[in-house]
Amino acid sequence: MITVLAVHFAVAAVAPLLFRKFGRNSFYALAAVPAGSFLWLLLQQGQVYSDAGFTEEVLPWIPELRLELAFRMDALAWVMSLLVLGVGALVLVYCARYFKDQDDYLGGFGAQLLAFAGVMFGLVTADDLLLMFIFWELTTVLSYLLIGYARTRLAARRSALQALMVTTAGGLAMLVGLIMIGFSAGTYRISAILAQAPTLATGPAGAAVGAAVVLILIGAVTKSALVPFHFWLPGAMAAPTPVSAYLHAAAMVKAGIYLVARLAPGFADTAFWLPLVLGLGLATMLVGGYRALRQTDIKLILAYGTVSQLGFLTMVVGLGTPGAALAGLALLLAHGLFKAALFLVVGIIDHQAGTRDIRKLSGVYGSARALAVVAGIGAASMAGVPPLAGFVAKESVFEAFVHYGTGSPAGLLILAGLVLGSILTFAYSARFMWGAFAVKPGVEATPFKPIKPAFLAAPALLSLLTVIYGLWPAPVDGWIQPYAALFAGTGHGGTDPDGGSAAGAAGHLSLWHGFTPALGLTALTFALGLAMFYGRDAVARLQGLVPGWIDGDRAYQQAIGALDDAAVWVTGRTQRGSLFFYLSVILTVATVLPLAALVLADRPLPDGLYFIDPNSPLQLVAGAGIVISALAAVRANKRFLAVLMVSVSGYGIALMFALQGAPDLALTQMLVETIILVAFVLAMRSLPARLRDRMGGKYRVIRVIIGAAFGITMVFVAIHALGARVALPVSLEFPKLAYEGGGGLNVVNVTLVDIRAWDTFGEISVLALAATGVASLIFVRGRGDRLQASSTVAEGTVGRWRGARGNTRADAALAMSRRFAAASRDAWLVAGRTMAPERRSIIFEVVTRLIFHSVIVFSVYLLLAGHNLPGGGFAGGLTAGLALTIRYLAGGRFELREATPVRAGTLLGIGLATAAAAGVVPLLLGGQVFQSAIVELWLPVFGDIKFVTSTIFDIGVYLVVVGLVVDVLRSLGAEIDEHFEEHPAEPYADQEAGGIPAETTAKGKA
């Protein structure tokens, strides 16, 4: 089973490549995958129907969390797989003639359809609730993509989103139910849960289990388009016809039916099961049949007919008796055969005639007799006409419900509703055939292109199987009996007279059972169905009297509209564009909730408090510096000064870390503060220098109160949190774990790259995303992180001041700098010559030349030494980033290009890939993800070497951090530089009195 899934997904991954070379004929290659899986499935019949009754495959995934890839093939899964794989192969064959080579996105469509077949197979064979839910949601995502295949059409996009929202909402409710029932059972294995279902339903957790079953049924109801969520399925007819034939006849909508059938043996006796299953099922059957008679699009007739049949199926498989179980699976197979065939016929009619409107179609039977025969078989089976599969299955259904309804008013009411729904089914089946093929008075004959045999092959084969099934139902009966036997003797429903033995309780599928009440109901169905068809004008007039507001889709749209209005109302009152308002709300909540918890807890402060560490009096100096810099940042009236003061506060915190004996944290904090300071300074060039109304405003007192309250509250929260510990800190074991397990003495670094490598991998992934986000905000038409070589740039042209300023001292200084910059000598920097003389500093260039390589070497040292000494990938990467920052500030953007010829995106990608490889390779070698190995060796000159493989992970971290810094420099630095040069502003508008530039501003003033 796992191999079948892997093959489906692997071929789906390469499907786009096949379509580029072979066009639409690639569908044949894709069809070979489910076809081959279908043959494999037939070979498994002996094992599935052996004494054990199943075959299973289990692959441990995360044993600590009891997560495993558990698959189980029993009779129910085998029958469902027949439908999923068989119909899937035929639909893919049909696609090869339905689509044209010129159609767009065929590769993606084929891949998604094949992947859907694999996902459905995984869903019906999964023996783990959470694994099944994963496949369940994958069907939702893939159906969204398939329904929205015609992405340029508004109707397709709207219908895809509607299906996604409805089924996802139901799926989330179902997830809660699955977790509840798995927690109550102590296992998520479906087979184990069903084995203990009677105990669960009647035990202490019975109420929780009952609620869980209701939530699970909500997921099934939304997936199978039952009332009141039925409206999404007709809307999904915006999808190409092959999608409708597969997803909405044989696959996706059957997922809910399968879930009901899977849980019925264990939970059909719970309190809300039958009211939900029978009530919603009957309502859906009647609503779908009624709406089908109003449609003029033959595809919508089938769509609403499918809604009706899904309600029918839900009632039968959920009834919980052996006879209903047999009839339910028999009807499920019959429905998959005839409904898939009919949808494919609709696709042919649309393809060859160019319309699906019954008001325009006329005389198609005369132009396509073979197609009409195929459609007639499918429609007759849908109506329950002998000797077809639909008749055999429906007779069994009537038989089961006749027994169920005996002696019970509610049962008789359900039976009457079932007969009424069957009458509607017969009527819309006749309407479909009449609308698609009949000659209509006053309507011109529809031009119809000849049908190629390959195009008709798939629906013809499905119709042939419908006939064979009807004439020879014994094999199907044998396939279903083991499932029906699960209900024998359970007494579900309480009215089955043959509950003592499996065979007697379930009965058998047969074309002729004699003259029975079920046969009488069938005859009544035919008579009244024909009457409704021939009296269709009167029926249409009656339907016209029903108010138009009774419409599920309209109710959905109104609900979404009301939700949008509420969102607009809430957004308008919360998202005001006021930073003060946002921070006030956030900080007030963050103050009130913890403070309320402290007050309600009423706990004394822990003993041994001190505000100044007697062993480190310098902390008082550092704390005073932090407070003073924070107050200065608040009082600053210029942006640069405010940012600088915030950075001073950060450096003070780094000093605190150092005084507390945490050199790693201190080093990283200092480097981070420096990089952030540079990023802020670069970004502030696009902002005015002064902070307007910095100290004004009527809310000044409120800001002070909120800020002080938040700070004081956090102090006491931290004190109480530290004093509330009742167990030994886990960190006490970290030094031992770091040395014995991680092979290093630096606890911080070993924790990052080994003990908690998963966390670090998530953090560097966030860094890569942040870098991409910064780039996307700056670069509109592409990432833009590739600069031209400095050799192509004229000397002294970058950042040159423009315009005359008159005879001033600044002009004289400028002329002097240009004369000295033009001196003939070796350049200190590679691209320094590109900078305008007034932008260059010879001292800065010399210093950069002297320290750059040393800083880079030091960064590599920090990287390699970090396993045992202060340092590591983060610190090393930040140090290398500072070296590159210095070079950019000294030589401009072209110097940065010469210093980093590798693009920032490439560095980020290589870094992530290196870190990921450090996690995957141990798994491939039989270990665990991110497991480290310690390699000890002796090398000449170096001597004894101890190498820990987690260093490879640290190298990935190093590259990601360097890539992030380079991305920031190229976006906030180089890109803004280029923008200023392309759009020069009026110079020196903010000069101070002496003609000296005030500071760097958004307009590039110096």
Walk me through the structure.
Mean pLDDT is 86; it is low at 491-504 and 986-1006. Helix 4 (75-98) runs antiparallel to helix 5, helix 15 (298-318) packs antiparallel against helix 20 (409-437) and helix 33 (747-755) crosses helix 34. The longest helix has 33 residues, at 950-982. With 1006 residues, the chain is an all-alpha fold. Helices cover 68% and strands 3% of the residues. The chain has a two-stranded antiparallel ribbon with strand order 1-2. The protein has a two-stranded antiparallel ribbon with strand order 3-4. The protein has 40 helices and four strands.
Concise structural overview:
By secondary structure, the protein is mainly α.
Give the topology:
Elements: H1 2-22, H2 26-43, H3 45-48, E1 55-62, E2 67-73, H4 75-98, H5 106-125, H6 129-147, H7 154-185, H8 190-195, H9 197-202, H10 206-223, H11 232-235, H12 241-247, H13 252-267, H14 273-292, H15 298-318, H16 322-353, H17 364-367, H18 369-383, H19 389-405, H20 409-437, H21 453-471, H22 474-484, H23 502-506, H24 517-534, H25 536-544, H26 552-574, H27 579-601, H28 618-635, H29 639-659, H30 663-684, H31 700-723, H32 734-741, H33 747-755, H34 757-778, H35 809-821, H36 842-865, H37 873-891, H38 893-899, H39 904-924, E3 934-939, E4 943-948, H40 950-982
Antiparallel strand pairs: 1-2, 3-4
Helix pairs in contact: 1-2, 1-5, 2-4, 2-5, 4-5, 4-12, 4-16, 4-21, 4-22, 5-6, 6-7, 7-10, 10-13, 10-14, 12-16, 13-15, 14-15, 14-20, 15-16, 15-20, 16-18, 16-19, 16-21, 16-22, 18-20, 18-21, 19-20, 19-21, 19-24, 20-24, 27-31, 28-29, 29-30, 30-37, 30-40, 32-33, 33-34, 34-39, 34-40, 36-37, ...
